[in-house]
């Protein structure tokens, strides 16, 4: 089970009709790609059709909110977006500004479109911390993103009846 997740991946809601996009930043691509790959595999296990999972990469984490907005505009049938990035803490406050900008951007996109953007842009102290959260283990952020996506889409479907 994922660290702190209330369910195991086998207990996640199936979402076979979901249309999803996965977006990731290009910085620390080994870690970001590992999170994306894990999310994609977990989504396939929830019966999401491969053709309903679009994967996009952008230069950095600050570009992710724009990518999310453009994807929702381009595909009104898109149900949710899962976003991945790694922001490494440095000696300046740049990392805090990036993380804050990404968070605010995703909130704006979510409010504008009424659809979830699952934020797995992680702020870490070291590359080793990022590797722990993207490794082939229970801490991979791809699992957490899929959990949030399946729970939210299941809840939305219940609301719509």
Task: Describe what you observe in this structure.
This is 6,7-dimethyl-8-ribityllumazine synthase. Pathway: Cofactor biosynthesis; riboflavin biosynthesis; riboflavin from 2-hydroxy-3-oxobutyl phosphate and 5-amino-6-(D-ribitylamino)uracil: step 1/2. Catalyzes the formation of 6,7-dimethyl-8-ribityllumazine by condensation of 5-amino-6-(D-ribitylamino)uracil with 3,4-dihydroxy-2-butanone 4-phosphate. This is the penultimate step in the biosynthesis of riboflavin. With 161 residues, this protein is an alpha/beta fold. The mean pLDDT is 94. The protein has one domain (19-160): Rossmann fold, CATH 3.40.50. It has helices at 29-45, 64-74, 94-113, 127-132, 141-160, and strands spanning 20-25, 53-58, 80-88, 117-124. A four-stranded parallel β-sheet has the order 2-1-3-4, sandwiched between helices. α1 packs across α5 (141-160). The chain is globular, with a radius of gyration of 15 Å.
The shape is globular
User: How many strands in all?
Assistant: 4
Percent helix range:
40-55%
List unreliable stretches of 5+ residues: none
Q: Distance N terminus to C terminus?
A: 30 Å
Q: Using only CA atoms, what is the Rg? A: 15 Å
At the first level of CATH, the class is Alpha Beta
Strand percentage lies at 15-25%
The major pleated sheet works out as: 4 strands, parallel
List the helices and strands in order: EHEHEHEHH
Task: Assign the CATH superfamily.
Answer: Lumazine/riboflavin synthase
Catalytic activity: (2S)-2-hydroxy-3-oxobutyl phosphate + 5-amino-6-(D-ribitylamino)uracil = 6,7-dimethyl-8-(1-D-ribityl)lumazine + phosphate + 2 H2O + H(+)
Pathway: Cofactor biosynthesis; riboflavin biosynthesis; riboflavin from 2-hydroxy-3-oxobutyl phosphate and 5-amino-6-(D-ribitylamino)uracil: step 1/2
Keywords: Riboflavin biosynthesis, Transferase
Enzyme class: transferase
């Amino acid at each position: 089970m994922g660290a702190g997740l209330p369910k195991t991946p086998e207990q996640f809601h199936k979402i076979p009709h979901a249309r999803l996009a996965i977006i990731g930043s290009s910085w620390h691509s080994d870690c970001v790609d590992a999170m994306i790959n894990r999310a994609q595999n977990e989504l396939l296990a929830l019966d999401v059709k491969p053709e309903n999972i679009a994967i996009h990469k952008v230069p950095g984490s600050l570009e992710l909110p724009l990518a999310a907005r453009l994807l929702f505009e381009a595909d009104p049938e898109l149900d949710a977006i899962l976003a991945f990035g790694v922001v490494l803490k440095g000696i300046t406050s740049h990392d805090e500004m990036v993380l804050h900008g990404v968070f605010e951007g995703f909130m704006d996109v979510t409010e504008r479109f009424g659809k979830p953007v699952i934020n797995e842009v992680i702020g870490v102290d070291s590359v080793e911390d990022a590797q722990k959260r993207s490794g082939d283990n229970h801490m991979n952020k791809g699992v957490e993103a899929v959990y949030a996506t399946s729970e939210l889409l299941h809840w939305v479907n219940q609301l719509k009846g």
